[in-house]
Amino acid sequence: NKLLSEKEKSNKLLYDVVFIGLTCDREKLYxxxxxxxxxxxxxxxxxxxxxxxxxxxxxxxxMTPIGYKELFEYFDSNIxxxxxxxxxKSRSRRYAKRQYTWNNHQIPVTWFSVCFDDFNRTVNEIYxxxxxxxx
Length: 135
Prior knowledge:
By secondary structure, the chain is mainly alpha-helical. 60% of the residues lie in helices and 7% in strands. The protein has 6 helices and 2 strands. The protein has a two-stranded parallel ribbon. The longest helix is centred in the last third of the chain and has 26 residues, at 81-106. The two termini are 36 Å apart.
C-alpha cells in the first residue's frame, strides 16, 4: 500500500528463476540474421513499409525499430534499396550483439549452444541442466 516511489529499491528477484540463454557462434548468428532479413523482404516488408510511408506515419513506434526507417530513407531517394537492406542487416546484427552483451553483464545467464539440426538436443541439454541444478 505504498507509492512506488516510496518502496525500497532492490535488485532482489521476487521468485526463484533460472536464466537460460541460447547462443551460437557469431558467424552462424549473423548468417541467420541476414537470411531472416531476406525472408522479411521477400514476404512483403517493402510493401508494408511503403504503405506506412505513403500514409505519412512517422510515429516513434514506426521510426524506432529496425526496418522501416531504413526503407523510408530509400523511399526518400537518400539511399539505394541495396543500401537500405544492408543497413537493416547490419543494424540487426549490432542489435543482437548488444542484446547478448547486456544479458551477459546484467543477469546471471547460463548459456547453451543451439543445435539447429536437432533442437530437441538443445532442449534436452537445458532440461538436464535444470534437473541437476534444481531438481
